[in-house]
Specification:
Blueprint lengths: L16 H6 L7 E6 L5 E6 L3 H4 L19
Antiparallel strand pairs: 1-2
């Protein structure tokens, strides 16, 4: 899928609707932009919060630790 967008004088642009819809993006979603060596820019939508990932990795026989109990 390919769409065009325009950069404003403030450095802002609008992600085309068909792209937003395909990625299920909504207002407030965060993204990261990575500049590749060949000048390609990769945009990734951050869809997971740390609380959603809590307990995703655990060892067998061990109880997951609640996020609130993790040390900083």
């Amino acid at each position: 899928m390919s769409s065009d967008a325009t950069l404003t004088s403030k450095g802002q642009t609008t992600i085309p609707k068909e792209i937003r819809d395909s990625l299920s993006m909504k207002a407030g979603d965060r993204m990261t932009f990575t500049l590749m060596p060949d000048a390609t820019v990769v945009m990734r939508v951050k869809t997971k919060s740390i609380t959603e990932l809590a307990g995703a990795l655990h060892k067998k026989g061990r109880k997951p630790v609640p996020v609130e109990q993790l040390s900083r």
